[in-house]
Amino acid sequence: MSETFTLVITGAPYSSQAPQTALGFAKAAVDAGHQIDRVFLYGDGVHLASALCAPPSDETHWPDEWSRFLTQHKIPGVACIASALRRGLVNETEQKRYELPSANLRAPFEIAGLGEWVEGRIKSTRTLYFHAGD
Amino acid sequence: MTTLIMIDQPPYGAWTGREALDMAFSLAAFDQSASLLFTGPGVNWLRQTQHAGGIEQKSVEKNLAAAPIFGMDAILADRAACIAYGLDEHSLIEGVTLVDADADLLTDYDHTAFAG
Fold first, then answer.
1. What InterPro entries does the annotation carry (chain B) (predicted)?
2. Nearest chain B Cα to A87, which residue?
3. ipTM value of the model?
């Protein structure tokens, strides 16, 4: 039976394995014919949506890998606005609102409220959480 | 769909508890059944008369006081953890239900979640 998943990532890339584990799961789920309704970044997980990560060239670029996966499969990626603003992750709208020097949200991620998580839980058959594990 | 949001970290020193509280409030705001369970050092959230000004933080007591207004079903605290941290009915904030945070309790809920 085909499942629909909402994935919640709360661990940041390069300080936790959460984004990597979540991507491995997401690829396997899609390959097996399941649907990913959306990916919701919460807490430190919002760092995955930063356009400014620049890891060494011999390391996997997890934000880039996630962006490509979401774009390829047309899966919405949403960063929680409260988590994002606290941690310095903003789109152009929030940049203007708070008069910040730049925006740094990477495509195709968007910024929205926890209502996106609530809706994902209702629409999906399963919601999985990928934490930092500390 | 009933959801239990679990907080197992103390109120100051980590932000995940506050973000867990936001998750619970969001569920309630969207008319989804939600309860909070405090376990381990997390029960210190429920201690009366917290003075967080000394560390330039807002007391989490006020956040929790808003739970009934938001329509939260229940605030639960693990009985054993309360004993371990010296919390009783005189030192706990109002409206807390003591429970045994075991597998039986979790079966009462469709979903359980941590913030991190």
1. DsrEFH-like (IPR027396), Sulphur_relay_DsrE/F-like (IPR003787), Sulphur_relay_TusC/DsrF (IPR017462)
2. B15
3. 0.88
Domains and CATH numbers, chain B: 2-113 (3.40.1260.10)
- In chain A, which ranges are E strands? 4-9, 35-41, 77-80, 110-112, 126-130
B62: pLDDT strictly greater than 90: no
Neighbouring residues of A30: CB distance < 8 A, sequence distance ≥ 6? A36, A73
pLDDT, mean over chain A: 97
CA B14/CA B19 separation, integer angstroms: 10
Per-residue pLDDT at A23: 98
What architecture is the A4-130 domain classified under in CATH?
A: 3-Layer(aba) Sandwich (3.40)
Say if CB A19 and CB A59 are below 8 A apart.
no
Encode pLDDT of B63-91 as tens digits.
888 888 889 999 999 999 999 999 998 99
- Domain ranges across chain A: 4-130
Alpha helices in chain B (DSSP H): 16-29, 60-65, 67-70, 79-84, 103-106
Is the Cβ pair B26, A118 closer than 8 Å? yes
Checking if the pLDDT of A134 tops 80, the result is no
Which residue of chain A comes nearest to B34, CA vs CA? A118
Distances (CA, A) of B111 to A27, A80, A117, B15, B34: 24, 20, 13, 22, 9
Report helix angle B16-29 to A115-123, nearest 10.
60
Contact B26 A44 (CB under 8 A): no
Instruction: Identify the pLDDT of residue B61.
Output: 83
